[in-house]
Design goal:
It is a single chain. With about 250 residues, the protein is α/β, with parallel strands linked by helices. It is about 45% helix and about 15% strand. It is built from 10 helices and 8 strands. It has helices at about 15-25, 40-50, 65, 70-85, 105-125, 135-145, 160-170, 185-190, 220-230, 235-250, and strands spanning about 1-5, 30-35, 55-60, 90-95, 130-135, 150-155, 175, 200. The chain is globular and about 50 Å long.
Amino acid sequence: MIDTHCHLDFEDFDEDRENVVERAKKEMTAIINSGTSFDGNISSLKLANKHDGFIYTSFGFHPISSAKIGEEVLNKVINQTISHMDEIVAIGEVGLDFFYVKDKSEREKQKKIFHKFAHLANEYKKPILIHCRDAERKAFNIIKDYEDIPEVIFHCFSGSLKTAKRIMNLDYKMSVATMICYSKKHQDLFKEIPLEYILTETDSPYLALERGLRNEPVNVKNAIKKIAQLKGISYGEVDKITESTAKKVFGI
């Protein structure tokens, strides 16, 4: 199993981070820890270096923050990403969040910043991890014009089946989180998406199976179980195919 998107660097794990990692190592092949800020990128890289060959990192800047970011901070994150390009497996998470960000000018700012990171992924030929809450179609319309990005992943995809089909037409991927275990919308959606376009994730510490609890990477097995149930195939087949896709996408 591979958790292609989580945040083990967040303070939610400060008291037992190593225990969480050890639990994951017993059952999993790898974890992709996704950076969301300048400091978070540094923490994520340290975590990957400490658990070399098991935890990998991506560098990004969360779109909710990017709506209010200054030019100086943005350039700082971009330069940081460039300087560590050989140490990261993807750029992200970056993208658009129109769920929390309602102001039109802030949404336009998100788009401009998303373009900057997309250009970076295109120039350095690096996979990109996209956050696109309530903006899936808009994010697709932006990213499709960057033809040199080797892999595009729509993290925690919640868009329409119509948008999913457009995503698949360009051989992009969509990751499904543990919320598929309780979300009828995600169950109906991913039942229709062929397995070869699906990656698995937890988005830990978020999207736990029960409200108020903390999620962790090893729980990705619950998403795999639900996918297997929905598609009427074995757990092992889902595990094998999603893991193989993740290894190819991130080059691990």
